[in-house]
Amino acid sequence: MTDAYVIGVDMIKFGRFPEKTVPQIGSEAALLALDDCGLKIQDMQALYCGNLGQASGMVGQRILQEIGQTGVPVINVSNACATGATAFREAWASVKAGLYDVVLAVGVEQMGKGLLGGGGGATGIPKEGLLGSGTMPAVFAEAGMEHSRKHGTTFEQFAKVSVKNHHHATMNPKAMYQIETPLETVMNAEMISYPNTKLMCSVNVDGSAAAVIASESKARELGLMNRAIKVRASVLTSDPWQERDLVMPDVNTCTRLAAKQAYEMAGVGPEDVDLIELHDCFATAEILHYENLGLCPDGEAGRMIDDGEVELGGKIPVNVSGGLLSKGHPLGATGIANIYEVSTHLRGEAGERQVEGARIGLTHVIGLGSACGIHILEKAS
Amino acid sequence: MADKPLPAVGYLKIPENGKPYLQGCKCSSCGAVFLGERDNCSKCGARGGMEEVQLSNQGELYSYCIVHRSFPGIEVPYVSAIVDLEGGGTVKGNLINVEPEPDKIPFGMPVEVVYDDALGRKDRDGNSYLSYFFQPR
What we know:
The complex is a heterodimer. By secondary structure, chain A is α/β, with parallel strands linked by helices. Chain A is built from 12 helices and 11 strands. The mean pLDDT of chain B is 96.
């Protein structure tokens, strides 16, 4: 089987664009990614489009109606917050399988403000606040408190994640917010669901990201290997059975399973990875994934954040883009935006936030319900 | 309109003559316990063979969070709790009769399931509902 390479990748600056349509927002990233590798929409043999909010709305076709209706197959993908990563993976798989030489993956989302989750059933009475909370801040607070129960993780340690990611975002011009956010500010912000304050919840933004994926022979033929990024591993898992998972979504087991498979596929271990973009949908979630991805032994995630090991310049920088907490989290775009971030570092083009000498990077997303997508990327040699 | 309160969720059973309880089922192949009814086992994949069980009203607090912002009209703060029941089954619900402060809510706290009106919530036909809550024992 051929290796598959990212030859073009980009994202728009995340923000709020209520005046635009979802396909318009998606088209912007698609064109940026095409420009990144100097190709045209006519060169793409298929489009894999990730979007959640209009999952039945043929967003991929409507993107082509904005930028070029070439008649190629369009596959619209929806997989909760793993939507973008799933679209990317399907594109990757089509190239690996030899079906196509060069394809486009786009992730796009237009979000409202406010709480996600907690929708009631169609019949009877609303259950929110009656049978606990189904809002996302509450669900991930409960997952964080499970970690506190096992390992004594503190509110302050969770809050430090948000301080770090907001700091990183000050160096990312494409992040929603570029604002230093000290620990007191994070901890004293409005409490949403203890232990997650408002500044420990991901930012609902509109955004899009896109990647052009090509086979090795096509990348060489196009003369694009000098900036190409090799996909060393692409893994998608669902949630294996756990005794509590029907009332308490389990983001740990599916991540551990995906991480194990991804490291095996890439032939590397966590110690070989130079930077990580992981799913910090809430500050509590990031802590869990240090252990789930094998960055430290179980129980040491709190120490990692205390010791600064996950900051830019630390042992293994995590979410140098600013993460979902400050860059923003347009659900369907996030998975490809992570791939843009890691690729940019591997190309040595990340500017002020560059992880020096980055050679291998890992991206991780969770779609609650649940899905886990992991990609391991390496600069082409 | 029903002359008696309706169950807030399908797995809350209200017998004609008897006390309400939470219903679960148990896989006769692997022993996994689930909340509510189901046909097949998602742990071992066994088809059929699910046995109805009455879940315990005694349990312990596994995890929780304290909800300070919810949807408009929902009273806050409240404690959203995950409770492991004795003999199997995990249930989510409101933990009541505790101060919504982290240092007042120890993990592993013994709790019991209690049944009461669903916070005055009625459906569009005006029916009342019976729900369940957890409280310290």
